[in-house]
Amino acid sequence: MGNTDTREELLHIALEIFATKGYHATKISDIVKQAGVAQGTFYWHFKSKEEIAKEIIDKGKENLLAAIHQGYRQTFALTDDMIQSTTALMKRIFTFAQENRNLMTFLLVKGQGADPEIREAIEEALISVEQAFKKNIQRATELGMLNSSHNTDLQATMLTSLVMGTLSKWLFGPKHDLNYVPKFSVDEMTEELVHFEFFGLIGQRRN
């Protein structure tokens, strides 16, 4: 196994153990044992458990933001197209979360009780998600698709809370059960989420 492959394998295994046992309960010896490498090999690639955890968070953040940035608009669109494109965006986010369940477990559940440095890295990742949503909202406002009198900071905060809160409950249930099986498909969740985002509780519009 080459150096790059070994590094990626250590990242993959570390994330799996962090998501299962939590950051505090995970030891470097756990990671190297499962990876089948010597402890010195770990330290060749990473200085500490904190460093590998931060790289996992950074890589996960980059991949999640890449999905959100695809929703950045270049041209004006009418409401129907906005709904369609927003649904596609939410499907990308929910599919990413489903395919990267260990990452979402670490970010939303197991990483919350970690050391301050790790919690701060997770918080920064979630703030970056909010900023990406804000950028999308600002662009839609510039194009005249959204009301310019609304506060984009508040809109981004509410949208992020809606998306990430819904995503967390969908993946882990109300009790943050890591073995929870979602009751609804990605398509069902995103369709309902986007309808609520655009039309709220009254929900007058349905096609």
From TrEMBL:
Where's the DNA-binding part? 27-46
Where is each HTH tetR-type domain found? 4-64
Pfam families of this UniProt entry? TetR_N
> Is NAD one of the keywords?
no
Q: Which UniProt keywords apply?
A: DNA-binding, Repressor
Specify whether Repressor is a keyword of the entry. yes
Instruction: Name any one GO molecular function.
Output: DNA binding
Please name the InterPro entries in this protein's record.
Answer: Homeodomain-like_sf, HTH-type_Tx_Regulator, HTH_TetR, Tet_transcr_reg_TetR-rel_C_sf
Q: What is the name of the protein in this document?
A: TetR/AcrR family transcriptional regulator
